[in-house]
Give the backbone structure.
Amino acid sequence: RFYFERVEASRNFANKLWNASRFIFMNIDDEIMNGVTRESVEANFTLADKWIISRANRVAKEVTENMDKFDLGIAATKVEDFAWSEFCDWYIEIVKPRLYGDDVEAKKAALYVLTYVLEKILKLLHPYMPFITEEIYSCLPTVEGSIMVSEWPHYKEEDNMAQDEAMMELAMDGIRNIRNARAEMDVPPSRKAKIFIVSDDAKIRDTFESNKEVYVNLAGASEIAVQADKTGIEEDAVSVVIPGATLYLPLEDL
């Protein structure tokens, strides 16, 4: 049952976890983080913040249930997928502009969420990766003592934000489809394009309106226009359809 590809994949995951943790620690400002609590930053949570907290909460619940049933392989896969894909590849990329920006309150909220979710990930991974998780955990400014005697992550009802999860998944779906469309047309990542987001659902329009910066950073957008109809969109624009909305990219921009 032993094969080298599995060892290499595990090494790559350990590197990913280590580098993500290093990135977080490099951006932690002790002065900014001093006295930060959930209550002090909750008002500044973005949709992405609520999504990653809610997802971490759900993963903790599912992993605990799997471990109680001795489905250890399934539990490990769930934590790894969440840590690699959703936390590292999506959330950390989304949060970077806030970490580098001048808005102190936005940075506080981002750092709180980063450390809060990383702490959960380390605890869930600890039975499988005891040494690296202990080492990273010991550097977290929000905890004391050893990870071995810390409390196991429990499901919290206040962290259950299913509606925000659904809205964020919709935004991510749009980004994935735009990336695919650009890749199929061999558009270089450096080439920015205007994106029109058309939806007759006011709630969906509000979601995209409040998350424009995500598209600018992750979908190669030069500008975002959220509207209820196709006004001002050329007939030859490339279209991407997602549930409840259609995204258009002007052909001349590509």
Remarks:
- Residues 72-100 form the longest helix (29 residues).
